[in-house]
Protein backbone atom coordinates (compact mmCIF):
# COMPACT_ATOMS: atom_id res chain seq x y z
CA UNK A 1 0.00 0.00 0.00
CA UNK A 2 1.34 3.43 -0.94
CA UNK A 3 -0.36 6.63 0.18
CA UNK A 4 0.29 10.32 0.79
CA UNK A 5 -0.04 11.63 4.32
CA UNK A 6 -0.99 15.30 4.55
CA UNK A 7 -2.91 17.43 7.09
CA UNK A 8 -3.75 20.90 8.35
CA UNK A 9 -4.78 22.46 5.07
CA UNK A 10 -6.68 25.21 6.94
CA UNK A 11 -8.50 26.27 3.78
CA UNK A 12 -9.65 29.87 4.20
CA UNK A 13 -6.94 30.88 6.65
CA UNK A 14 -5.58 34.42 6.48
CA UNK A 15 -2.02 35.46 7.32
CA UNK A 16 -2.14 38.80 9.14
CA UNK A 17 -5.06 39.81 6.95
CA UNK A 18 -3.66 38.44 3.68
CA UNK A 19 -5.86 35.96 1.81
CA UNK A 20 -4.10 32.61 1.28
CA UNK A 21 -6.56 30.89 -1.09
CA UNK A 22 -4.28 31.31 -4.11
CA UNK A 23 -1.30 30.00 -2.11
CA UNK A 24 -3.34 27.06 -0.85
CA UNK A 25 -4.49 26.11 -4.35
CA UNK A 26 -0.89 26.20 -5.58
CA UNK A 27 0.21 23.93 -2.71
CA UNK A 28 -2.65 21.54 -3.45
CA UNK A 29 -1.67 21.37 -7.12
CA UNK A 30 1.79 20.21 -6.05
CA UNK A 31 0.32 17.61 -3.67
CA UNK A 32 -1.86 16.25 -6.45
CA UNK A 33 1.10 16.14 -8.83
CA UNK A 34 3.16 14.20 -6.27
CA UNK A 35 0.28 11.76 -5.85
CA UNK A 36 0.10 11.19 -9.61
CA UNK A 37 3.85 10.96 -10.12
CA UNK A 38 4.30 8.50 -7.25
CA UNK A 39 1.21 6.50 -8.30
CA UNK A 40 -0.24 6.43 -4.79
CA UNK A 41 -3.21 4.28 -3.86
CA UNK A 42 -4.84 6.94 -1.65
CA UNK A 43 -4.48 10.38 -0.06
CA UNK A 44 -4.79 10.71 3.72
CA UNK A 45 -5.80 14.10 5.19
CA UNK A 46 -5.38 14.10 8.97
CA UNK A 47 -7.76 16.88 9.96
CA UNK A 48 -8.20 20.65 9.86
CA UNK A 49 -9.48 20.74 6.32
CA UNK A 50 -10.80 24.23 7.00
CA UNK A 51 -9.46 26.98 9.24
CA UNK A 52 -12.84 27.81 10.79
CA UNK A 53 -15.86 25.83 11.89
CA UNK A 54 -17.96 28.05 9.62
CA UNK A 55 -15.71 28.59 6.59
CA UNK A 56 -16.25 31.34 4.06
CA UNK A 57 -18.03 30.51 0.81
CA UNK A 58 -14.77 30.96 -1.13
CA UNK A 59 -13.02 28.42 1.13
CA UNK A 60 -15.78 25.85 0.61
CA UNK A 61 -15.67 26.36 -3.15
CA UNK A 62 -11.90 25.83 -3.19
CA UNK A 63 -12.08 22.65 -1.11
CA UNK A 64 -14.87 21.29 -3.31
CA UNK A 65 -12.70 21.96 -6.35
CA UNK A 66 -9.81 20.11 -4.71
CA UNK A 67 -11.98 17.08 -3.94
CA UNK A 68 -13.32 17.02 -7.50
CA UNK A 69 -9.80 17.00 -8.91
CA UNK A 70 -8.49 14.35 -6.52
CA UNK A 71 -11.41 12.04 -6.23
CA UNK A 72 -13.63 12.39 -9.29
CA UNK A 73 -11.14 13.32 -12.00
CA UNK A 74 -8.02 11.43 -10.85
CA UNK A 75 -10.01 8.61 -9.16
CA UNK A 76 -7.86 8.81 -6.02
CA UNK A 77 -9.43 7.47 -2.81
CA UNK A 78 -9.46 10.04 0.02
CA UNK A 79 -9.23 9.09 3.70
CA UNK A 80 -9.96 12.18 5.81
CA UNK A 81 -11.00 13.20 9.32
CA UNK A 82 -12.24 16.39 10.96
CA UNK A 83 -9.79 18.35 13.12
CA UNK A 84 -10.24 20.75 15.99
CA UNK A 85 -10.70 23.68 13.59
CA UNK A 86 -13.44 21.90 11.66
CA UNK A 87 -17.13 21.63 12.48
CA UNK A 88 -17.73 17.89 12.54
CA UNK A 89 -21.48 18.42 12.14
CA UNK A 90 -21.16 20.58 9.04
CA UNK A 91 -18.31 18.57 7.56
CA UNK A 92 -20.14 15.26 7.67
CA UNK A 93 -22.90 16.55 5.37
CA UNK A 94 -22.79 14.32 2.31
CA UNK A 95 -20.65 11.66 3.97
CA UNK A 96 -23.00 8.74 3.28
CA UNK A 97 -22.77 9.19 -0.48
CA UNK A 98 -19.11 10.34 -0.57
CA UNK A 99 -18.09 6.72 0.08
CA UNK A 100 -19.57 5.72 -3.29
CA UNK A 101 -16.51 7.35 -4.89
CA UNK A 102 -14.04 6.16 -2.20
CA UNK A 103 -14.08 9.45 -0.29
CA UNK A 104 -14.12 8.44 3.37
CA UNK A 105 -14.65 11.39 5.71
CA UNK A 106 -15.03 10.50 9.38
CA UNK A 107 -16.26 13.18 11.79
CA UNK A 108 -17.70 11.15 14.69
CA UNK A 109 -15.94 8.94 17.24
CA UNK A 110 -18.10 5.88 16.55
CA UNK A 111 -16.96 5.86 12.91
CA UNK A 112 -13.37 5.27 14.01
CA UNK A 113 -14.10 1.63 14.86
CA UNK A 114 -15.12 0.79 11.30
CA UNK A 115 -11.79 0.20 9.51
CA UNK A 116 -11.45 1.15 5.86
CA UNK A 117 -9.69 -1.71 4.10
CA UNK A 118 -7.55 -1.05 1.05
CA UNK A 119 -5.33 -3.81 -0.26
CA UNK A 120 -3.20 -5.15 2.57
CA UNK A 121 -3.93 -2.23 4.93
CA UNK A 122 -6.63 -1.29 7.45
CA UNK A 123 -7.16 2.44 8.08
CA UNK A 124 -8.76 3.61 11.32
CA UNK A 125 -9.96 7.20 10.86
CA UNK A 126 -10.17 8.87 14.28
CA UNK A 127 -11.47 12.46 14.15
CA UNK A 128 -10.71 15.04 16.81
CA UNK A 129 -13.07 14.57 19.77
CA UNK A 130 -13.56 15.78 23.32
CA UNK A 131 -13.47 13.43 26.35
CA UNK A 132 -17.25 13.67 26.77
CA UNK A 133 -17.74 11.88 23.44
CA UNK A 134 -15.73 8.90 24.69
CA UNK A 135 -17.46 9.03 28.06
CA UNK A 136 -20.83 8.69 26.36
CA UNK A 137 -19.73 6.13 23.78
CA UNK A 138 -18.10 3.79 26.30
CA UNK A 139 -20.64 4.62 29.03
CA UNK A 140 -17.75 5.16 31.39
CA UNK A 141 -17.98 8.15 33.74
CA UNK A 142 -14.34 7.76 34.73
CA UNK A 143 -13.13 9.03 31.35
CA UNK A 144 -12.19 12.67 31.90
CA UNK A 145 -9.12 13.21 29.71
CA UNK A 146 -8.06 12.40 26.16
CA UNK A 147 -5.34 10.15 27.55
CA UNK A 148 -7.94 8.05 29.36
CA UNK A 149 -10.19 8.08 26.30
CA UNK A 150 -7.44 7.01 23.90
CA UNK A 151 -6.66 3.91 25.94
CA UNK A 152 -10.24 2.75 25.48
CA UNK A 153 -10.34 3.82 21.84
CA UNK A 154 -7.19 1.91 20.91
CA UNK A 155 -8.35 -1.14 22.88
CA UNK A 156 -11.57 -1.30 20.85
CA UNK A 157 -9.77 -0.66 17.57
CA UNK A 158 -7.41 -3.60 18.13
CA UNK A 159 -10.46 -5.86 18.42
CA UNK A 160 -11.07 -5.13 14.72
CA UNK A 161 -7.48 -5.78 13.61
CA UNK A 162 -6.96 -8.25 10.79
CA UNK A 163 -3.62 -9.92 11.63
CA UNK A 164 -2.94 -10.40 7.93
CA UNK A 165 -2.99 -6.66 7.26
CA UNK A 166 -1.02 -3.55 8.25
CA UNK A 167 -2.79 -1.12 10.58
CA UNK A 168 -2.77 2.66 10.11
CA UNK A 169 -4.28 5.18 12.52
CA UNK A 170 -5.23 8.62 11.19
CA UNK A 171 -5.70 11.06 14.06
CA UNK A 172 -5.57 14.74 15.06
CA UNK A 173 -4.11 15.31 18.52
CA UNK A 174 -1.12 16.62 20.42
CA UNK A 175 1.09 13.60 21.07
CA UNK A 176 3.42 13.76 24.09
CA UNK A 177 6.93 14.74 23.05
CA UNK A 178 5.77 16.95 20.18
CA UNK A 179 6.69 20.61 19.66
CA UNK A 180 4.14 23.30 18.79
CA UNK A 181 4.43 26.53 16.77
CA UNK A 182 2.53 29.82 17.10
CA UNK A 183 -0.05 29.06 14.44
CA UNK A 184 -1.48 26.03 16.25
CA UNK A 185 -4.35 26.75 18.60
CA UNK A 186 -3.66 25.23 22.02
CA UNK A 187 -6.80 23.55 23.34
CA UNK A 188 -5.30 22.35 26.57
CA UNK A 189 -6.17 22.60 30.25
CA UNK A 190 -3.97 20.53 32.55
CA UNK A 191 -2.82 18.28 29.71
CA UNK A 192 -6.33 17.64 28.42
CA UNK A 193 -5.35 17.07 24.80
CA UNK A 194 -2.08 15.17 25.29
CA UNK A 195 -1.85 11.60 24.02
CA UNK A 196 1.15 9.50 25.20
CA UNK A 197 3.05 8.11 22.23
CA UNK A 198 3.16 4.63 23.81
CA UNK A 199 -0.66 4.48 23.60
CA UNK A 200 -0.32 4.24 19.82
CA UNK A 201 2.20 1.39 19.71
CA UNK A 202 -0.35 -1.10 18.36
CA UNK A 203 -0.33 0.58 14.95
CA UNK A 204 2.20 0.09 12.17
CA UNK A 205 1.91 3.76 11.25
CA UNK A 206 0.17 6.76 12.82
CA UNK A 207 -0.65 9.61 10.41
CA UNK A 208 -1.04 12.69 12.60
CA UNK A 209 -2.44 16.15 12.13
CA UNK A 210 -2.65 19.20 14.45
CA UNK A 211 0.99 20.34 14.61
CA UNK A 212 2.35 22.21 11.61
CA UNK A 213 5.93 20.96 11.45
CA UNK A 214 6.99 17.58 10.08
CA UNK A 215 9.69 17.32 12.75
CA UNK A 216 7.35 18.06 15.66
CA UNK A 217 7.50 14.40 16.66
CA UNK A 218 10.48 12.09 16.27
CA UNK A 219 9.19 8.53 15.98
CA UNK A 220 9.81 5.70 13.54
CA UNK A 221 6.12 4.86 13.21
CA UNK A 222 4.26 8.10 14.02
CA UNK A 223 4.62 11.38 12.13
CA UNK A 224 3.02 14.77 11.67
CA UNK A 225 2.87 15.73 8.02
CA UNK A 226 2.85 19.42 8.94
CA UNK A 227 0.82 22.02 7.07
CA UNK A 228 1.35 22.53 3.32
CA UNK A 229 2.06 26.24 3.92
CA UNK A 230 3.77 28.34 6.57
CA UNK A 231 1.14 29.99 8.74
CA UNK A 232 3.29 31.96 11.21
CA UNK A 233 6.72 33.48 11.72
CA UNK A 234 7.62 30.59 14.04
CA UNK A 235 7.43 28.31 10.98
CA UNK A 236 10.00 30.45 9.14
CA UNK A 237 12.62 27.71 8.85
CA UNK A 238 10.29 24.76 8.37
CA UNK A 239 10.27 22.67 5.20
CA UNK A 240 6.72 22.01 4.05
CA UNK A 241 5.45 18.99 2.18
CA UNK A 242 3.83 15.56 2.53
CA UNK A 243 4.91 12.08 3.59
CA UNK A 244 4.99 9.34 0.99
CA UNK A 245 4.22 6.15 2.93
CA UNK A 246 4.88 2.60 1.72
CA UNK A 247 3.51 0.00 4.11
CA UNK A 248 2.66 -3.67 4.38
CA UNK A 249 2.60 -6.21 7.21
CA UNK A 250 6.39 -6.52 7.17
CA UNK A 251 7.81 -3.07 6.42
CA UNK A 252 7.30 0.67 6.61
CA UNK A 253 9.14 3.16 4.40
CA UNK A 254 8.74 6.95 4.65
CA UNK A 255 9.91 9.66 2.27
CA UNK A 256 9.20 13.36 2.66
CA UNK A 257 8.20 15.16 -0.52
CA UNK A 258 8.79 18.90 -0.37
CA UNK A 259 6.34 21.59 -1.50
CA UNK A 260 7.55 24.97 -2.76
CA UNK A 261 5.35 27.96 -1.80
CA UNK A 262 4.44 30.56 -4.38
CA UNK A 263 5.04 33.12 -1.64
CA UNK A 264 7.36 32.36 1.26
CA UNK A 265 7.61 33.93 4.72
CA UNK A 266 10.95 35.70 5.03
CA UNK A 267 12.58 38.03 7.53
CA UNK A 268 14.59 41.11 6.61
CA UNK A 269 16.68 43.36 8.84
CA UNK A 270 18.06 46.87 8.52
CA UNK A 271 17.58 50.55 9.11
CA UNK A 272 14.63 52.29 7.54
CA UNK A 273 16.97 54.04 5.09
CA UNK A 274 18.52 50.73 4.09
CA UNK A 275 15.18 48.97 3.65
CA UNK A 276 13.78 51.55 1.24
CA UNK A 277 16.95 51.85 -0.83
CA UNK A 278 16.85 50.20 -4.30
CA UNK A 279 20.19 48.51 -3.61
CA UNK A 280 18.51 46.56 -0.81
CA UNK A 281 14.93 45.96 -1.93
CA UNK A 282 15.87 44.89 -5.45
CA UNK A 283 17.51 41.83 -3.89
CA UNK A 284 14.28 40.87 -2.09
CA UNK A 285 11.34 38.92 -3.49
CA UNK A 286 8.89 41.66 -2.51
CA UNK A 287 5.80 39.52 -3.16
CA UNK A 288 6.78 37.24 -0.25
CA UNK A 289 5.28 37.72 3.20
CA UNK A 290 7.82 39.83 5.07
CA UNK A 291 8.64 40.26 8.73
CA UNK A 292 10.75 43.38 9.19
CA UNK A 293 13.36 43.82 11.90
CA UNK A 294 14.00 47.56 12.17
CA UNK A 295 17.28 48.77 13.68
CA UNK A 296 16.33 52.47 13.99
CA UNK A 297 15.76 53.96 17.44
CA UNK A 298 14.11 57.18 16.26
CA UNK A 299 10.42 57.63 15.52
CA UNK A 300 9.86 57.47 11.75
CA UNK A 301 6.78 59.37 10.57
CA UNK A 302 4.38 57.36 8.39
CA UNK A 303 6.76 54.40 8.59
CA UNK A 304 4.34 51.56 7.72
CA UNK A 305 2.84 53.34 4.74
CA UNK A 306 6.28 54.03 3.32
CA UNK A 307 7.42 50.44 3.86
CA UNK A 308 4.27 49.00 2.29
CA UNK A 309 4.88 51.03 -0.86
CA UNK A 310 8.04 48.95 -1.32
CA UNK A 311 7.00 45.71 0.39
CA UNK A 312 3.24 45.15 -0.09
CA UNK A 313 2.99 41.98 2.04
CA UNK A 314 4.43 43.01 5.40
CA UNK A 315 3.10 40.77 8.19
CA UNK A 316 4.92 42.49 11.06
CA UNK A 317 7.52 45.04 12.10
CA UNK A 318 9.81 44.48 15.09
CA UNK A 319 12.04 47.18 16.57
CA UNK A 320 15.23 45.48 17.69
CA UNK A 321 16.63 48.23 19.89
CA UNK A 322 13.62 50.01 21.35
CA UNK A 323 12.42 53.43 20.28
CA UNK A 324 13.56 56.93 21.20
CA UNK A 325 12.07 60.20 20.00
CA UNK A 326 15.05 62.32 19.00
CA UNK A 327 12.94 65.46 18.41
CA UNK A 328 11.40 65.86 21.86
CA UNK A 329 12.22 65.12 25.46
CA UNK A 330 10.01 62.76 27.39
CA UNK A 331 6.98 64.65 28.60
CA UNK A 332 6.93 65.12 32.36
CA UNK A 333 3.90 64.42 34.50
CA UNK A 334 3.40 68.17 34.90
CA UNK A 335 3.68 68.61 31.16
CA UNK A 336 1.04 65.97 30.52
CA UNK A 337 -1.46 67.91 32.61
CA UNK A 338 -1.04 70.90 30.30
CA UNK A 339 -1.86 68.92 27.15
CA UNK A 340 -5.32 69.02 25.61
CA UNK A 341 -7.18 65.65 25.39
CA UNK A 342 -6.53 65.34 21.64
CA UNK A 343 -2.83 66.03 22.22
CA UNK A 344 -2.68 63.26 24.83
CA UNK A 345 -4.28 60.78 22.43
CA UNK A 346 -1.95 61.82 19.62
CA UNK A 347 1.09 61.41 21.86
CA UNK A 348 -0.09 57.98 23.00
CA UNK A 349 -0.64 57.00 19.35
CA UNK A 350 2.92 58.04 18.48
CA UNK A 351 4.46 56.15 21.41
CA UNK A 352 2.60 52.93 20.55
CA UNK A 353 2.92 52.96 16.74
CA UNK A 354 6.14 54.88 16.25
CA UNK A 355 4.30 57.14 13.79
CA UNK A 356 2.68 60.56 13.95
CA UNK A 357 -1.09 60.47 13.35
CA UNK A 358 -2.12 61.65 9.89
CA UNK A 359 -4.35 64.67 9.35
CA UNK A 360 -7.37 62.39 8.89
CA UNK A 361 -6.54 60.47 12.08
CA UNK A 362 -6.20 63.74 14.01
CA UNK A 363 -9.64 64.75 12.69
CA UNK A 364 -11.14 61.43 13.84
CA UNK A 365 -9.60 61.85 17.29
CA UNK A 366 -11.11 65.30 17.70
CA UNK A 367 -14.52 64.14 16.47
CA UNK A 368 -14.61 61.16 18.84
CA UNK A 369 -13.51 63.26 21.80
CA UNK A 370 -16.21 65.80 20.97
CA UNK A 371 -18.85 63.05 20.91
CA UNK A 372 -17.63 61.71 24.26
CA UNK A 373 -17.69 65.21 25.74
CA UNK A 374 -21.21 65.82 24.42
CA UNK A 375 -22.51 62.50 25.81
CA UNK A 376 -20.94 63.23 29.19
CA UNK A 377 -22.67 66.64 29.31
CA UNK A 378 -26.01 65.02 28.50
CA UNK A 379 -25.91 62.63 31.47
TrEMBL record:
This is Nuclease SbcCD subunit D. Pfam families: Metallophos (PF00149), SbcD_C (PF12320). SbcCD cleaves DNA hairpin structures. These structures can inhibit DNA replication and are intermediates in certain DNA recombination reactions. The complex acts as a 3'->5' double strand exonuclease that can open hairpins. It also has a 5' single-strand endonuclease activity. The gene is sbcD. Heterodimer of SbcC and SbcD. Residues 1-213 form the Calcineurin-like phosphoesterase domain. Residues 262-352 form the Nuclease SbcCD subunit D C-terminal domain. Keywords: DNA recombination, DNA replication, Endonuclease, Exonuclease, Hydrolase, Nuclease. CDD domains: MPP_Mre11_N. It comes from Candidatus Enterococcus dunnyi. Belongs to the SbcD family. GO terms for molecular function: 3'-5' exonuclease activity; endonuclease activity. PANTHER family: COMPONENT OF ATP-DEPENDENT DSDNA EXONUCLEASE (PTHR30337), NUCLEASE SBCCD SUBUNIT D (PTHR30337:SF0). One of its GO terms (biological process) is DNA recombination. It comes from the Bacteria.
Amino acid sequence: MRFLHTADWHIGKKLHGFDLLEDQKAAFDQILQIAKTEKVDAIVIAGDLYDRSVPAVEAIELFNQMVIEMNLQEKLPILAISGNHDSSTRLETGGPWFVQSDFYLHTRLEQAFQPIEMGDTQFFLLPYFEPISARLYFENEEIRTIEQAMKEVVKEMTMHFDPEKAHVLVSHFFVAGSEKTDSETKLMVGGLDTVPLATLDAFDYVALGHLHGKNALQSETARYSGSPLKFSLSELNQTKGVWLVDIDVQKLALEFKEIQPVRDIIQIKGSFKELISPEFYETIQKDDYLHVQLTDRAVIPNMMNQLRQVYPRIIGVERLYGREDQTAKKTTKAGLKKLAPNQLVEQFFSEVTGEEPTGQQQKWIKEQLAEIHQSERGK
